[in-house]
Amino acid sequence: MQKTRRKFLQAAGIGGIGLLTPLSFTGIAAADESASRFNNLLRLPSVVEGRIHGDERVIDLSLGYGTSEFFSGRPTPTVGINGPYLGPIVRVQRGDNVKLNVTNRLSEPSTLHWHGLNLPAAMDGGPHQVIDPGKTWTSTFKILQGASTQWYHSHMYHRTGIQVYFGLAGLFYIDDSRSSALNLPSDYAIDDIPLILQDRSFNQDGSFRSATSMHDRMIGMMGQFMLVNGTAFARFKAQRRLNRLRILNGSNARIYNLEFDDRREFLQIATDGGLLEAPVAMRNLVLAPGERAEILVEFTPGKDVMMRHRPLPSRAGSGTAMMGMMGMMAANDQPFDIIRFQAPQDSSVSASIPSRLIEPRQWSANDIARTRHFTLNMRMGMGMMRGGGFGINGRSMDMHRIDARVPL
Ligand SMILES: [Cu+2]
Question: How far is residue 305's CA from residue 300's CA, in Å, rounded to a whole number?
Answer without folding.
Answer: 9
